[in-house]
Amino acid sequence: MFVADLLRHGxxxxxxxxxxxxxxxxxxxxxxxxxxxxxxxxHDIDLxxxxxxxxxxxxxxxxxxxxxxxxxxxxxxxxxxxxxxxGLSHDDIEAAFPGSLQQxxxxxxxxxxxDGESPEELQVRVVGFWQDICRTYKGKRACIVGHSGSIRMLxxxxxxxxxxxxxxxxxxxxxxxxxxxxxxxSKMLFIHKxxxxxxx
Length: 200
Description:
- The longest helix has 18 residues, at 119-136.
- The protein is an alpha/beta fold.
- It has helices spanning 28-41, 54-67, 90-96, 100-106, 119-136, 148-158; strands spanning 2-8, 47-50, 71-73, 141-146, 176-182, 185-193.
């Protein structure tokens, strides 16, 4: 059996934006949110797998060093690339691309932010990531530190749901979920344990 605790990064400075592959600095609250979850699970974790972006990788590497366990940086769990939406707020996107964001929030299937990544492409890399780590780390328990989009897509895959379902998964900052894989089947044990109410 493989067990994975899925943790979204905490609150970022600068407000809510579609950062995608852009770096963003964690606020002091964001760091605290992530540390609070880590304290609850750290005694059972064998390894950490993190997105390469610093909002995930910096705390992940610090935790791994403290516990003397591996921290593996894997670009397949990085956030979706939002192309020309990168770094923009909701209002900015609406002004530049009227109506696109509303459609995206309802069902992004078949859409692609200009010069960005499609949900289908995100799905392929996230599913490949999950299948790979389930085989590679069988018998282990991992903490996966990622992003709203990548973790939503992973949860939808595990639940055997469509891309459209990703929009129904609540994913606040420092949201904590748990999945397991055994006997060639994956399932979610729980979704969204957090006291945070900030969304993006």
